[in-house]
Design goal:
Length: about 270
Amino acid sequence: MPGPPILIDFEGVSLAFGATRVLDNVSLQVRRGETKVLLGETGTGKSVLLKLALGLLRPDAGRVEVLSESVSRMPERDLFELRRRIGIVFQESALFDSLSVRENVAYRLEEEGRLDEAHIEARVRACLAAVELEAAIDKMPAELSGGMQRRVSIARALSTEPEIMLYDSPTGGLDPITATNIMEQIIKLRDLSHVTALLVSHRLQDGFLMATHVWDAAANALRPDAAAAAATSFAVLHDRRVVFDGSATALRSSPDAYLRHFLADVAA
């Protein structure tokens, strides 16, 4: 029986920067409602895959399809409309320092000009409420902690009601408690909005938290639940290729020598 439709599809993708090959025949799919956690050592091309999904880079070979559109062949003018359907959260948050929280979250909506001011205000407040930051709406980024800035960037990504979320190391550089808080927000978004996501992470515990916990709306908190495993999968990049693509259970139990060494290193 066929599964949910594939929303992100890399097929035989290769890419080099000059003489340096970054990706070599990479194939990877993300289905509707799934969060795929992309792991790998620094410099293995994880963030490059996100840029390929956005059409910011074009592969030297292979095919990239997002939301059934051929991103690798799409004219630049058509990519703008596709990107509206995609939210992205950068590791550095990438907020505009000179704009308030309200203005940062509203930025894409103002730029598109599809909504009037009242609807934009309502949308901004709803997105901030989703990450529990509505009280910070009038603050400037410099007044926020690193974790709060990351949550504002998630709210901004949500502003256009994306069908896909791309996360580029959303917990990078944060202390463990703050990182867990960010992952709670991402799991909450997965379970309440059913957004499809590709999440790059250097923290194995982030992925395993997603694969073992769900958001309990009644308790307003995470709780362990085996059902989380069905909505979360893992891929590991090594030596320019995908060396693993499967469930958390399969990753933990893999006899592959590299994977066992990698898991031991990132868990240390």
